[in-house]
Design brief:
By secondary structure, the protein is an alpha/beta fold. It folds into three domains: 126 residues, Methylthiotransferase, N-terminal domain (Rossmann fold), CATH 3.40.50; 249 residues, pyruvate-formate lyase- activating enzyme, CATH 3.80.30.20; 55 residues, Nucleic acid-binding proteins (OB fold (Dihydrolipoamide Acetyltransferase, E2P), Beta Barrel), CATH 2.40.50.140. Helix content is 36%, strand content 21%. It has 15 helices and 21 strands. It has a six-stranded parallel sheet with strand order 2-1-3-4-5-6, with helices on both faces. A five-stranded mixed beta barrel has the order 17-18-19-21-20. Helix 9 runs parallel beside helix 10 and helix 13 packs parallel to helix 15. It is globular. The chain binds S-adenosyl-L-homocysteine, iron/sulfur cluster (SF4) and FE3-S4 cluster. FE3-S4 cluster binds next to helix 1, helix 3 and helix 7.
């Protein structure tokens, strides 16, 4: 599906005259947390190339759309945004000013050729495995349209510029680090194995070095990212294969790192080492995102999920035994081809028996090149709509109940930023709930015990309980 595009040469163009004004880039993310992380890293590359970041396309000389191919709607958004950018570029051109438009990410990988064909305003297409080559691609794009969606043999992360302390500080006290990329699981609904390629784990020493640097620049919480993060099997300094559980134990020792999370994990890769890390490592947050997709064994098999419903329940039991206060979230798909009413009800039954604090749920979207899309027994849109609303009603009820049960509890909150109102600050609980409280800004970056006093639809409000702590202390 994701044919590899080499360099596509279009019409030659004159090099834009060098300008003394700093160049400005606008990068927009459409996808998952890894897509957001990639946008940050592309920002780092562009900073080295002399670009400042702009807040809007209107204020930029270079616009990069970092796209997502996971569902049809996500992909289609890109084409409508490109139409708007084309008009902007033409208006600029009329004033004699230049503007470069680039498409990065998973749609670029899967449909690079189609993008070049459908949208003449696009100067540059770059896949998620080749964005370390952006400097060279930009130079070429100033002369002729260019596309690079190779899966290069070299390690992209090893080629990226180092993290700059100023940029880390700008991004705040919570950071993402990709540790694993790609996927070998080939669920029959999913494009990720095609857009991101085969599974790859970054070496332990590189991950540790990144986290040390983040911690030195004030980061307190790190979320380890991977499409299949618990399939992590990076090599350590002594050439041994290291699991995610072992990596987490290493990272928890880094001074300054108070919170660790990981996402997204596959149930089939929840090994005992990782489960015991939930018991042994206090910095590993008691919140686990464990996608189930469907509660029906028949659908799970058709999706090629590699586990049955009962095995998922066993994993949940083990994780809860290791960390009784843990809360779970999940991903669900309704209307996979062939899903009967009874299959769907099995999903509702699983949700009732697990009990989730949060979830993402989607209507099945047939994706080009995936086995699910070829099936003849696609489910009617109206049936998908109806199932999704029943599923979401149940998940929302569970989320609200979980939030309401937090009222009166004291939860550790990592303070991340100023709140919306004067004198207010905002942070997150171990369960990723947003919390607002009245307290000094100096607490940003600290973890403070907060008594939860109310639960709104999207956030909690709380009261700091031990006012005795000075702002400089870190009462973790
Ligand atoms: N690696 C993760 C999921 C990554 S994709 C895992 O194995 O669970 C994020 C979520 O998007 C998936 O969990 C799934 O719920 C949803 N998704 C993926 N492909 C989809 C499709 N074709 N239609 C609808 N939802 C999809
Ligand atoms: Fe997609 Fe996740 Fe399945 Fe891999 S394991 S194919 S990323 S849903
Ligand atoms: Fe989307 Fe690619 Fe992430 S398809 S979900 S941006 S891996």
């Amino acid at each position: 599906m994701s044919e590899s595009l080499k360099l596509i040469r279009g019409e030659e163009r004159a090099e834009a005259p060098a300008s003394s004004k700093p160049r400005r880039a606008f990068i927009k993310s459409y996808g998952c947390q890894m897509n957001v992380y990639d946008s940050e890293r592309m920002g780092d590359i562009l900073a080295v190339e002399g670009y400042d970041l702009a807040d809007s396309a209107e204020a930029a000389d270079l616009v990069l759309l970092n796209t997502c191919h996971i569902r049809e709607r996500a992909s289609e958004k890109v084409f409508s945004e490109l139409g708007r950018l084309r008009a902007l570029k033409e208006a600029r051109g009329a004033e004699g000013r230049d503007m470069l438009i680039g498409v990065a990410g998973c749609v670029a990988q899967a449909e690079g050729r189609e993008i070049m064909r459908r949208q003449g305003a696009v100067d540059l297409v770059v896949g998620p495995q080749s964005y370390h080559r952006l400097p060279d691609l930009l130079r070429r794009a100033r002369k002729a349209r260019v596309a690079d969606t190779d899966f290069p043999a070299e390690d992209k992360f090893a080629k990226l510029p180092g993290l700059s302390e100023a940029r880390i500080r700008q991004r705040g006290v919570s950071a993402f680090v990709t540790v694993q990329e790609g996927c070998d699981k080939f669920c029959t609904f999913c494009v990720v194995p095609y857009t991101r390629g085969a599974e790859f784990s970054r070496p332990v020493a590189r991950v540790v070095a990144d986290v040390v640097q983040l911690a030195r620049a004030g980061v307190r919480e790190v979320t380890l990212l991977g499409q299949n993060v618990n399939a992590y099997h990076g090599e350590d300094e002594r050439h041994r294969t290291c699991s995610l559980g072992t990596l987490i134990r290493r990272l928890a020792e880094i001074p300054g790192i108070a919170r660790l999370r990981y996402t997204t994990s596959h149930p089939a890769d929840m090994d005992d080492d990782l489960i015991t890390a939930h018991r042994d490592v206090p910095a590993l947050m008691s919140y686990l995102h464990l996608p189930l997709q469907s509660g029906s064994d028949r659908v799970l098999a058709a999706m090629n999920r590699k586990h049955r419903a009962a095995q998922y329940l066993q994993i949940v039991d083990k994780v809860r035994a290791a960390r009784p206060e843990i809360a779970l979230s999940s991903d669900f798909i309704v209307g996979f081809p062939g899903e009967s009413e009874a299959d769907f009800e099995a999903t509702l039954a699983m949700i009732r028996s697990v009990g989730y604090a949060g979830a993402f749920s989607f209507k099945y979207s047939p994706r080009p090149g995936t086995p699910g899309a070829e099936r003849q027994d696609q489910i009617d849109e109206a049936v998908k709509d109806e199932r999704l609303s029943r599923l979401q009603a149940l998940l929302e009820e569970q989320r609200q109940a979980f939030n309401a049960a937090c009222i009166g509890r004291t939860l550790d909150v990592l303070i991340q930023k100023k709140g919306r109102h004067l004198g207010q600050i905002a942070g997150r609980t171990p369960y990723l709930q947003a919390v607002h409280l009245d307290a000094p800004e100096g607490l940003i970056g600290h973890i403070v015990p907060v008594e939860i006093v109310a639960a709104g639809p999207n956030s909690l409000s709380g009261r700091r309980i031990n006012q005795g702590h000075a702002a400089g202390e870190c009462p973790t």
